């Protein structure tokens, strides 16, 4: 099913922060909560992740400064994974909007999760290594994976569909899936039902629901895809028509990636999980 961002109520707070829940009761069984959060110029928001939760955020518009164990300026290319018990503040001088995802109880979502010490990480999706489709020009950029963040409770990727490209129909066994359209427009198919989607819309596919996605012919479509948990089985409607992804070891601009996983782990801050 598709949720239209324009139809979702926005709730302002006294601190200049507006929160907009992207799903409703139709997704009550979903294992992740998704919001669009807007900070007014001069606004600030504190993130206080509970010891049972995992969270992730992506800047959608504007710029902000992330204050945690160090200070990091964030723009639309940046996202951050927030482990259990993590406390941080986001401030902005000019205003900013972000996509916020939270898994309220990761151990219930995936009791066997590799989750003992999930890692805090800020990424720039334009400098991460791209996975390229073996059959067409589609691309995926991992943002949260077991290798990057030491958790199997959630998987997050930035996905780029060139004009007119389409993913073959499939369903996932063992995970809920969400796709939030960051740029462009296209058509989502869920259980054979087409839905026009555009920037700001959210597609929700519960476990085992058939789905496919096609970009409009006149422009690129880019979306953030979530799977909760990260470990699942993909079943293709037509086994002869499937997506296969090849490691390129290069970023979206074609440059060699700035950092490999071994180096990343050596420099990344390991945040202790609170039981």
Give a verbal description of the structure.
The protein is mainly beta and 275 residues long. The chain has three helices and 24 strands. The protein has two domains: 124 residues, Sandwich (Jelly Rolls), CATH 2.60.120.10; 113 residues, Sandwich (Jelly Rolls), CATH 2.60.120. The strands form four sheets. The chain has an eight-stranded antiparallel beta sheet with strand order 1-20-17-22-15-14-13-24. The radius of gyration is 18 Å and the shape is globular.
CATH fold-type name of the largest domain: Jelly Rolls
The coarse overall form would be globular
The main sheet comes to:
8 strands, antiparallel
**DSSP helix count?**
3
Percent of residues in β-strands: over 45%
Overall mean confidence score, pLDDT: 83
SSE map:
Blueprint: E1 2-3, E2 10-12, E3 17-21, E4 33-39, E5 44-48, E6 54-62, E7 64-67, E8 71-74, E9 78-82, E10 87-91, E11 96-103, H1 106-109, E12 121-124, E13 131-133, E14 139-144, H2 146-149, E15 155-161, E16 166-173, E17 176-183, E18 185-190, E19 193-198, E20 202-205, E21 211-215, E22 221-228, E23 233-236, E24 245-247, H3 261-267
Antiparallel strand pairs: 1-20, 2-3, 3-4, 4-11, 5-10, 6-9, 6-11, 7-8, 7-10, 9-12, 13-14, 13-24, 14-15, 15-22, 16-21, 16-23, 17-20, 17-22, 18-19, 18-21
């Amino acid at each position: 099913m598709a949720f239209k961002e324009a139809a979702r109520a926005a709730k302002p707070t006294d601190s200049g922060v507006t929160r907009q829940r992207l799903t409703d009761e139709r997704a009550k069984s979903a294992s992740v909560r998704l919001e669009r959060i807007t900070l007014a110029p001069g606004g600030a928001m504190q993130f206080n992740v509970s010891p049972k939760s995992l969270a992730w955020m992506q800047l959608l518009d504007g710029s902000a400064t992330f204050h945690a164990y160090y200070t990091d300026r964030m723009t639309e290319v940046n996202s951050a994974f927030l482990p259990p018990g993590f406390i941080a503040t986001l401030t902005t001088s000019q205003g900013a909007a972000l996509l916020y995802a939270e898994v309220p109880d990761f151990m219930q979502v995936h009791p066997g999760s590799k989750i003992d010490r999930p890692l805090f990480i800020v990424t720039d999706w334009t400098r991460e290594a791209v996975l390229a489709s073996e059959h067409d020009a589609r691309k995926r950029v991992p943002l949260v994976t077991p290798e990057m963040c030491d958790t199997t409770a959630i998987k997050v990727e930035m996905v780029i569909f060139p004009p007119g490209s389409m993913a073959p129909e499939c369903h996932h066994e063992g995970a809920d899936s969400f796709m939030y359209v960051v740029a462009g427009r296209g058509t989502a198919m869920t259980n054979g039902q087409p839905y026009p989607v555009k920037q700001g819309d959210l597609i929700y596919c519960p476990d085992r629901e058939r789905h496919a996605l096609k970009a409009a012919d006149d422009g690129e479509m880019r979306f953030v895809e979530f799977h909760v948990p990260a470990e699942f089985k993909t079943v293709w409607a037509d086994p002869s028509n499937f997506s296969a992804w090849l490691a390129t070891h290069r970023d979206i601009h074609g440059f060699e990636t700035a950092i490999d996983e071994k180096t990343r782990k050596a420099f990344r801050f390991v945040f202790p999980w609170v039981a």
